[in-house]
Structure formats: C-alpha cells, structure tokens
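Please decode residue identities from the backbone states below.
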C-alpha cells in the first residue's frame, strides 16, 4: 500500500500591490519522501497558481462538458480545480479503500496530466509511464485541489435554512441521498482520506437579510467548528470562513477571531445570498481590514464581471465561481471585453437561443482563440442549443470558461 505524505506547506507571496488590490502567487509544497505506484523515489511536489484567478468548478474532479484534451488546455491557464465535499460523500468508502488520495482517484497527478493517449501500445509497459512524455518545459504539474464544503455546481448544497449546522455536525444536500447528517469525526476522517491541498472548514452560511440573532449564532458556531477542526491531527491546510451575513459588526468579530487561528488562508462566506453590489463591497472591505495581508483570500459565490472587479480592487485573490457554467445552462455566451478601462461592464453576454442568430455566421466572439470560436459560428451553436444537442452546451462551455478565465 502506498505511503502518502499529507504534510503540505502553504506559501503566499504578494508580487505587486496597488492600493488594496494585489497580484500574488499561492504555492503548495510537499517536500518529503513519498512512495510512487511503481518505485520509491525522493520527490518534491510543488504547485503554484498566480492570483487573482478563478478555480475551475467540477463534479468529482470533472469540469462540466469538458473532454480530457480540453481540460488539459485549461490546466495550462490555471491548474486548479474545486471539488465539493457533497460530491465526494458517496465516494468516501471507495476513496478510503483506494488509499491514494484524491489526486490519484480522479487522475490529476503530474503523471496523469501528461499522459498522451496516442503513445499507448499493447505492451507490458504501463501506459501511464510512457517514454514519449512532453519536454520538461511543456509538462503540466499536479493539479491543485481545493476541497469545498459546498458543491461548486450547486449553491444550495449546504442546507442552512433551518440552521442545520451545529457545533458537532452539519447536513449536506447530497445528489444521491438527499439531506444527510455528517459528524465532525466523519468529516475529519474523510479529509484525511481525500488528502486535498486546501480544505474549506465547515461553517454556517446565512442569507444577507436574516435577523441579527441568527447572524451572531452563525459566527459563534462557525468559530467553534473551526477550533475543533484545527485541533484535529487530520485537518490538512484549513481555510477559515468569515461569516456574519449583512451585519458588519458580526463580520468584524468573525474576521478578527478567525485571523487569530493558525489557518492557511481565509474564505469570505455568505456572499451572493441576496445582497446588492454596494452591500457586497461594504462587507468585503470591512472584512479585509481585519485580515492579515500574508495569507490568501478566497471569495466564493461572486462571479459577474463587475462583482469580480470590485472584489479584486478591494484585495481578494481567488474566486471559485460557477458563473460560466450557469450562463452555459441558460444558453448565454460571455462576450465582455478583456480590456478594462475602469468603467462598469454593461454588455457582457449574448442569448444564443435567440432566433436572430439563426443565420449569423460570425464566431461567438470575434478574436476569441477558444476552439469553439475558431471552428464554429453563432448560427451553428444556436441550432445545437435549440435542438437540444449535447454538443451545443459543450461548445458554449468551452467558450465561456476560456473567455472567463482570460478575464483573470
């Protein structure tokens, strides 16, 4: 059985700053010995992502509508993926028995990322140890895995409407089993088995306009869960979640207290749950005032161009958003300009289901280098969407994700 090394060092480096806005580099290092599938060798796994950036949403490690070759192209832009705890819940026993962690389980190690199917031959050699590997400069490193509590493709994956998160357990909305209770002991064991690079701590999300009593309870419960998780020997690199709804005082308390804990970074929680853009800016600004600058800051639930630009200006680093996938489901294409001139983005999507595109021979977006725009027209995608062909969502997803990631 392979001996896995679960120790990781998280390093945040600010590259350049302008006011509160900043660019940086998040590096994960695992510098000890580890046993490979075929032999034992000393390795140093190091993976980095430059920020600001967006983490690709997935279903058990597979981005929606992506084939392997398309995903490998995206790994050269940002080699990171978000996997939801709720998605993996059904696979917990299998993953534990597998014993090699999430990277091997969903095939996103450096070995898998550089496998060339065309080099496969029916020989005794393992296809994953092919000698016709890419040159060192062209190789794709191991993918960074962010394990979130929420399903990245389903914003309702944590059931907090009835305050179902307590100091000892929480409920998840699981695709196969419905609402399932998970104890903290179960969570700790699963985190050890998953062996992800960054782990979101369990917390209590609350809508923006909920009453103050419930907001303050969310802060108390979230801090208690964080302390219990940090006390575990199986905790991994935990990201503390800042809660507090729309109450700025509660947000300050949550941020101040979370910053005192030995977390690897921070997540600003409970956004995208009913607040307007100005309220969102006020919350982010107040929270970031209380957080140290030497750790990474995640912002889930925020995805539109104007929201992202405001958050980057305030000092947020990593976004994990389902925004391009949502627009794909609606049949809409992202078309906003990537040349930011400081003004608010107004026109940023096209409804390709609209009949006005039935004879439009232009690409989805003129000048876009994605495969969909290089090879197909708006009229063709319009036809595919309106005849409910699977290829329509595939092409639209390729364009939306490519353009959206280019935004960063």
């Amino acid at each position: 059985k392979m001996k896995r090394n679960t120790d990781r060092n998280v390093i945040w480096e600010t590259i350049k700053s302008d006011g509160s806005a900043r660019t940086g580099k998040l590096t994960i290092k695992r510098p000890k010995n580890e046993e490979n599938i075929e032999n034992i060798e000393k390795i140093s796994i190091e993976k980095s992502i430059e920020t600001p950036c967006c983490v690709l949403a997935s279903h058990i490690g597979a981005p929606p509508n992506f084939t392997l070759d398309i995903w490998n192209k995206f790994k050269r832009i940002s080699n990171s993926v978000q996997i939801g705890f709720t998605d993996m819940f059904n696979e917990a026993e299998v993953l534990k028995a597998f014993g090699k962690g999430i990277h091997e389980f969903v095939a996103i190690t450096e070995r898998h990322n550089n496998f060339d199917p065309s080099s496969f031959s029916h020989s005794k050699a393992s296809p994953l140890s092919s000698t016709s590997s890419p040159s060192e400069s062209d190789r794709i490193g191991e993918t960074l895995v962010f394990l979130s509590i929420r399903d990245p493709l389903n914003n309702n994956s944590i059931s907090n409407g009835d305050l179902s998160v307590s100091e000892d357990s929480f409920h998840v909305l699981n695709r196969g089993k419905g609402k399932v209770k998970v104890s903290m002991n179960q969570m700790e064991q699963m985190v050890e088995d998953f062996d992800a690079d960054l782990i979101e701590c369990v917390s209590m999300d609350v809508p923006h306009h909920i009453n103050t009593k419930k907001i303050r309870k969310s802060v108390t419960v979230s801090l208690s869960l964080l302390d219990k998780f940090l006390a575990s020997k199986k905790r991994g690199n935990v990201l503390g979640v800042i809660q507090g709804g729309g109450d700025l005082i509660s947000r300050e308390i949550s941020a101040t207290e979370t910053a005192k804990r030995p977390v690897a970074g921070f997540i600003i929680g409970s956004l995208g749950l009913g607040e307007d853009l100005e309220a969102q800016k006020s919350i982010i600004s107040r929270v970031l005032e209380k957080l140290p600058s030497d750790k990474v800051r995640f912002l889930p639930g925020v995805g539109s161009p104007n929201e992202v630009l405001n958050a980057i200006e305030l000092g947020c680093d990593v976004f994990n958003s389902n925004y391009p996938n949502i627009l794909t489901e609606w049949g809409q294409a992202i078309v906003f300009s990537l040349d930011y001139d400081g003004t608010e983005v107004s026109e940023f999507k096209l409804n390709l289901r609209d009949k006005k595109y039935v004879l439009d021979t232009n690409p989805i977006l003129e000048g876009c280098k994605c495969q969909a725009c290089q090879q197909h027209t708006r009229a063709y995608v319009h036809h595919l969407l309106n005849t409910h062909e699977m290829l329509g969502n595939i092409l639209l997803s390729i364009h939306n994700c490519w353009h959206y990631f280019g935004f960063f």
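Observation: The longest strand covers residues 9-18.
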